[in-house]
Write a structure and sequence with these properties.
63% helix; mainly alpha; 8 helices; 166 residues; 0% strand
Length: 166
């Protein structure tokens, strides 16, 4: 594919992705500068010959769009998206919060797929849920009597456990 120097220069100036700019520079030096691809890649760009030939081949086949990264699909999910949407809806409809273990069990019951705890955290974050943490306004809402009863209950427990260990 023959592309003018002006077009390559303009594309180089407009491009914000550093990797694509480097590939445009390679094409400019090889196709319009008359230099050898291996030499440009190794001596000027500190890349391998294979890297240079790969991008030149993609440029010849697809033009400037071929120098951009292609989308990567990754591993397909084990659970269909429709099922996950149903689970997400069920979680969002509930007024109470959810623990990760509970969500893991719900996913397993509905789909038969067991996800790791960390992955369930990722899913919940992706769905817009946040961890269940007490808010600061609830810290001092207990009455004085409730606080005192709690203190007495924990003291008597600690004294009883100390007597038994002696």
């Amino acid at each position: 594919m023959v592309v003018s120097v002006d077009l390559l220069n303009d594309a180089y100036k407009r491009e914000s992705d550093a990797d694509v700019r480097e590939r445009i520079l390679l094409v400019r030096r090889v196709r319009n500068g008359g230099k050898e691809a291996a030499s440009v890649a190794e001596k000027e760009l500190y890349r391998t010959r294979g890297w240079a030939y790969k991008w030149l081949k993609r440029f010849d086949a697809q033009g400037l769009d071929g120098l951009k990264d292609q989308p990567r699909t990754g591993r397909p999910p084990e659970v269909p998206e429709k099922k996950m949407l149903q689970i997400r809806q069920e979680l969002s409809d509930s007024q109470s919060g959810w623990r990760v273990k509970q969500v893991m069990n719900i996913i397993y019951e509905k789909t038969g797929v067991r996800y790791h705890e960390v992955h369930v955290y990722r899913l919940l974050h992706k769905w817009g849920f946040s961890p269940k943490v007490p808010q600061k306004r609830f810290v001092n809402t207990a009455s004085s009597e409730e606080k005192e009863a709690f203190k007495r209950g924990s003291r008597s427990y600690s004294h009883e456990s100390l007597k038994g260990s002696r």
